[in-house]
Amino acid sequence: LRAVAPDNAPENPTVVVLTSGAPHAGYAEHVFLARRMNFQLVQPGDLFVDQAHVKMRTIRGPQPVHVIYRQVDDALAKLDGVAADTMFGIVGLLHAYAAGNVTIANAPGNGIADDKVMYSLVPELIRFYLGEAPVLEQVPTYSCLRDDDRSYVLDHLHELVVQTVDDAGSYDRLMGPESTAIERDEFRHRILAAPRNFIAQP
Q1: 118-155 pLDDT, tens digit each
Q2: Residue 181 CB partners (closer than 8 Å, separation 6+)
Q3: Would you say 97 and 88 are in contact if contact means Cβ atoms under 8 Å apart?
Q4: Measured at the alpha carbon of residue 61, what is the angle toward residues 10 and 86, in degrees to the nearest 5?
Q5: Which of 3, 90, 122, 154 has the fewest other C-beta atoms within 10 Å?
Q6: What CA–CA distance (Å, rounded) separates 146 from 4?
Q7: Considering the entire predicted model, what is its pTM?
Q8: pLDDT band, residue 42 (cuts 50/70/90)
């Protein structure tokens, strides 16, 4: 993370872990990461932009921030134009980012590689790119985009966990064994309407 700091950053750049806070499903992981890496854990209200440079509010006054390791959802990115841009609740962050004064690790839009459909492809990716069989087994993952997988999922909704592929906190999912017939029927219709948007796992 320090290695990707902007060119104008000092030799020991400041890195922060940006979280949306305790309500986020991954907050415990955010705390763990920040502690293990010895970086500050911050929320959007802890950061502000001054003359296209990001700063962090501290008890010792504003401190410059050079790298933001983002752990907030893309859905929170709100862009209101260049002059008064707002990203993740931080006015001017997009401007500072575009000016090259801050690096946002896992920048907005990079979630394409975090698409849950990737789970179903990992064994194939290993075979294709490494020419090897996977050493570790993974949880079987059914991509509803594939006809065979979709048929299996629709026949076994009562046994599976079904999730949208772009959901960062597992908020929009069907817990099959705990679901009602009405909930399963709703997910059946959603899967048939947009199969690319769903995966399922035991």
Answers
A1: 888 899 999 999 999 999 988 999 999 999 999 999 99
A2: none
A3: no
A4: 80
A5: 3
A6: 38
A7: 0.62
A8: very high
Give the tens place of pLDDT for each residue, 57-97.
999 999 999 999 988 766 666 655 544 567 778 888 888 99
Q: How far is CA 164 from CA 32, 71, 107, 169, 170, in A?
A: 26, 19, 21, 10, 8
Q: Which residue(s) pair with 54 in the sheet?
A: 49
What is the Cα–Cα distance from 141 to 162, expressed in whole angstroms? 10
Question: 80: burial class by Cβ within 10 Å (0-12, 13-18, 19+)?
Answer: exposed
Secondary structure (H, E, C), the chain: CHHHCCCCCCCCCCEEEECCCCCCCCHHHHHHHHHHHCCEEECHHHEEEECCEEEECCCCCCEECCEEEECCCHHHCCCCCCCCCEECCEECHHHHHHCCCCEEECCCCHHHHHCCHHHHHHHHHHHHHHCCCCCCCCCCCEECCCHHHHHHHHHCCCCCEEEECCCCCCCCEEEHHHCCHHHHHHHHHHHHHCHHHEEEEC
Residues in Cβ contact with 182 at an 8 Å cutoff, skipping those fewer than 6 apart: none
Please state, in angstroms and as integers, the Cα–Cα distance from residue 132 to each residue in 119, 127, 138, following that order.
Answer: 17, 5, 15
Q: Which amino acid is at 66?
A: H
C-alpha dist (Å) from residue 39 to 4, 90, 134 = 15, 19, 34
Query: Residues 77, 91: contact at Cβ < 8 Å?
Result: no
| Lookup: tokens for 42 | 């911050």
